[in-house]
Amino acid sequence: MSVQITASEGGMPHNKVMAIGLIGSIVCMYLTYLNTITGTEIFSFFGGIAAVFALWWGTDTIKHLCSYGLGTGVPSAGMIALGSGVIAMILATKLSTMGLISSVMIIPIGCVIIAAIIGAILGYIANNIVNMNIPVMIVSLAELCIVGAITILGLSAMAAGSFVFADLVTGSVTFFGVAIADYQASVIGGGVIAVIFMLGAIAVQHAFNACLGPNESQDRTLMLAAECGFLSMIVVSIMSFAFISAGSAILAFIVSVLGWVYTYNQYLVMSKRDAYMWLDAKPILEKKEA
Amino acid sequence: MEELLFGIGISAVAGALATVSGAAEDTESDIGSQGDPNSQVQLAPQMGYIHRIYSKAISGEPPAYGLWCAMGAGLAWALMAINYNPVLAIVLGSAIAVFVQGVYATTAYLGRTASLAKFEQPVYIDLIKSVTTVTMAHAFIAIFTCVAMCFLMVNALGHPFPLPLLGLVWGIALGAAGSATGNPFYGKERQYQSQAFGAGVPISASGNIVRYAEAGQRSSLDNGWFTSKMGGPASGVCFGLIVFLELWRTIFFEGFAAGWGAVIAGIVLILIFMIIDRYVEKWARKTYGPYTEEAAEEASA
């Protein structure tokens, strides 16, 4: 017995959500590059905003995919998104050192392209070899893989201040006042990317998983997706104290808290709007026998 | 010899921490109705049974606890990197992780309940105030002990994985242990105390969960008391044994056959547990009898 999922009518069309999410996240990824141009770290938080855009879009994709009766498949959709995305993301961060194009500007757009290819292959396997036969499977898995890749790339860039592979595997340890490069103290070597992975994987599936039901409404679900994104940003901003300057990390923390408070508040208002009744300390209202 | 004794001592402490962690995890998830019992809590309003039970659908327990423990460990790792005292770092990391857990819990309850408006299930806002804090408290104990155990593995036993990655691995194991051991106790017994013991849940009884208590209406808080008697400790013993035996076999047998000793010991342990499981299952079937006979009697009557 699983809850019947009825995708809500109306609201924003999925293609529009996808366009906003894709363009918004790529623009924000490039904005983190201002760090390198200006020689500071204060633009790191744009990586988190890119992840929020991606998660917001990914939630609508999961809703689209799961309207084909995948009740318990909602959390697994989040896992496959981030699981395939992390492969694309790590490959993309090395693109600038592979010889073809040496500019690091290739990384965000390259990440999207690689993720789309990996996602499409996974979708093909799921649909044609495992025979799941869901019409939107290939497109949805390609979208989810891009979402996962951008989420991890964005949050890693937010933590480390850069999306280049060399910066993600080199941290610095101060030893008797001398800074020494250390793999163990980096985003990937320290295992912080594992936290980012889980933050993204739970955040991308939570919004639809939490809101599914006959009275699900798109604006509430998407508001919750943004809330989950900002909540993940709060955690990453605290972890970024280990990698970037305290001022930049505090700025990232303030931006994420402001975003979170706004979206959480909006989500409460929308839940109150959609709920059957909003009761405080009242007994069970038994249904009247019809 | 001294190193071996030290290793066994650390294994015992880690096992003890894991036991507390497992017990707290299962109590937390039962109070919040997470995991598979959650499906019945959600189904109830659709079958016409309006209830005042918390419904915390944040993925399954293993991924959710993977996140909480990875987060606690990652934050503790980052705070230690900027020279915080390890104890303080673990406490702060777990506290921030619990904050995130609490936020996820409230959004899950509000989301699922508001989406059931068609079935006239109201949102009971006092549930959020009273139950969320209790699940957060239990989650804090579970996360703190799990992260402390991972910290011991890294710093005392020299585990090669970084702390956040160990947090993820053991967090998933913790959620799986609690979900597999403790949940049947809540989902199959507590929610269906109106059914005869061992009767299973027929389709007609689906969603007819216990909604009224001995006095007044059942709150999810009562599940904490119920779980802490049996389901919680059972999950704790399960997770504690997993952690202790895992570390014990590695420390004791790693020296044999260039590390293969630990692998062989692991396989032997699995075989021993399979034999015990088989014996317990046969004993239970023999002692409590097969269900089929009762069904046959009912059919003939």
Strand runs of chain B, count: 1
**C-alpha Rg of chain B, in Å?**
22 Å
| Cα shape of chain B | flat
Mean pLDDT of chain A: 88
Count every helix of chain B, treating DSSP H or I runs of 4 or more residues as helices.
Answer: 11
What profile does the largest beta sheet of chain A have? Answer: 2 strands, antiparallel
Count of distinct structural domains of chain B: 2
In spatial order, strands of the major sheet of chain A run: 1-2
- Name the helicity range of chain B: over 70%
Verbal overview:
The complex is a heterodimer of chains A (290) and B (301). Chain A has 290 residues and is mainly α. Chain A has one domain (14-163, 190-274). Helix content of chain A is 65%, strand content 4%. Chain A has helices at residues 14-31, 34-38, 45-66, 73-93, 106-129, 137-160, 165-168, 192-211, 218-239, 246-274; strands at residues 171-175, 178-182, 278-279. Chain B is an all-alpha fold and 301 residues long. Chain B has two domains: 2-253, no CATH class; 259-301. In chain B, 72% of the residues lie in helices and 1% in strands. In chain B, helix 1 runs antiparallel to helix 8 (221-229) and helix 3 packs antiparallel against helix 4 (86-114). The longest helix of chain B has 31 residues, at 125-155. The model of chain B has no long low-confidence stretch (mean pLDDT 88). Chains A and B meet through helix 4, helix 8, helix 9, helix 10 and strand 3 of A and helix 2, helix 3, helix 4, strand 1 and helix 6 of B. Strand 3 of chain A pairs parallel with strand 1 (123-124) of chain B.
